[in-house]
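User: structure tokens for this one?
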Amino acid sequence: MIRQAGKDQIACKIARMIYSLVRPLLFALDPETAHHVTLEAMRKLDRLGLVPAATPAPAQCERTIMGIRFPNPVGLAAGLDKNGDYIDALARLGFGFIEIGTVTPRPQPGNPRPRLFRLPAANAVINRLGFNNGGVDRLVENVRRAAYRGVLGINIGKNADTPLDRAADDYVACLRKVYPHASYVAVNISSPNTRDLRQLQQAGELDRLLGTITTEQRRLADAHGRQVPIAVKIAPDLDAQQIASIAGLLRRHRVEAVIATNTTTARDGVAGMAHEHEMGGLSGAPLTAHATSVVRQLAQALAGKLPVIGSGGIMTGADAREKVAAGASLVQLYTGLIYRGPALVGECVGALCAK
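Assistant:
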């Protein structure tokens, strides 16, 4: 075990060194261009067999959450691979689970560019992508083609032009198509970049939506002979009363998990920086403490009745430990990967699995 830990530390150091050389080149590009260049390069290298797989996590890293066995508690958050184009390449980075999406029933371009902005002084990103994706049929076809057989979450949303009173139709349409291919399905009601979407977090709207989704979940479980868990992804911009209300509804509808949190519309920690006034959701280090606070409040309100998946501002292994200490059972990374590179995955696994 000690020898393996030493090898893992060396691998992380090498990955950090490589990324420290590559990062200035990527940061010289437009952020969205850099995103696509990085993922395409990873896919091509993977197909050539030039991306070594991360060392499997030791047995003590395993977690059973939502009835699913996770080989380690560190996952990829939705948003990085919206269409499931890069599943196999991303799987080599050592994640215990991968979440793809957000996907909508029909393809949509998202918001006009530019729509992604780095704030390096704050280790932060602002995005207003707007659920840009190729539609659920494309995602399902990509999942079918992928060799990956690990834990796969699929994050679903509504099309931008679907009226809010018809939102449930979009979620159900996506749920039906992704159900046979997902380890769990994440319901995104918290992106700030689709008009009025966050209204679905209000008690009446959420009660109706969860009722519709869980009814369809039961029907699909009977049809497919297996229960695919539902997780709901919420915003960080909620007060204590709203968090308690959401927790009560999640328990009432027997939802299997909650993901906390999405990006924030607040601008704490980025005052005076370029792009601070850009519309969209802020992620990265300025979100860390607030997202952890939401995890803690949710965990207390849920009293262990369903697990919390901690996401938002995990930039170090210590941040991952804080999410777990606050009550998270699993954690997810995204913006931290932009600033720290793939070594962050191993660092977080090590931080959460060390005895």
